[in-house]
Amino acid sequence: MAPSKNSSSSGRLILALDATLSGQPTWDLACSLQAEMFDAVGKKGGLSVQLVYFRGFGECRASRFVDDTTKLKELMTRIDCRGGQTQIDKVLSHALKENQHGKVDAVVYIGDAVEEDIDLLADKAGRLGMLGVPVFAFQEGHDRAAETALREIARLSKGGWFRFDSTSSAALAQLLSAVAVFATGGLEALEARGRDGDRLMLAYLRGGRP
């Protein structure tokens, strides 16, 4: 079960995105919806978000942590998608390292493919789970190999896996909002708000599947 957290505390969240060419529609959608995370906790919610993205030949970068939607959108709109393979292993490794500097309360990963060794990813995900850093994997599309890998990452890190497409932006917005509420207030905050996305998130965090 995910640890409880004082609802008045702040939260640090890593937003990781596939910025390869196949991920362009996902990037555009995430850019338009990221405000939901900040809106969910309000100006006094204390949410800080770090953008991590990969693209091209071995390029994987992390921004500074920012505390409002305008700053995050400015970072995202400067980045263009480029051809390349997935680098989720680097994302998970970065999350482990970042957690050594300060507690990371959640990792959100949004992408449509996994082109890496699932066993290596599982090892990193399991280590994050032991540290109380859940990964919430949002998969665009129906690639079966990606689903298998992302479900396993979510399971081992004690997070959640969710599917979305271009017609489910409202549902994705609700779930991103729920992750932000969890990152800043824990299970109690999700229970108190009690929206559909919150209940779905709680089902995963309590060790079950909806």
TrEMBL record:
Top-rank taxon, per record: Bacteria
SUPFAM superfamilies linked to this entry: vWA-like
Protein name: VWA domain-containing protein
Organism name: Aquamicrobium aerolatum DSM 21857
Organism lineage: Bacteria, Pseudomonadati, Pseudomonadota, Alphaproteobacteria, Hyphomicrobiales
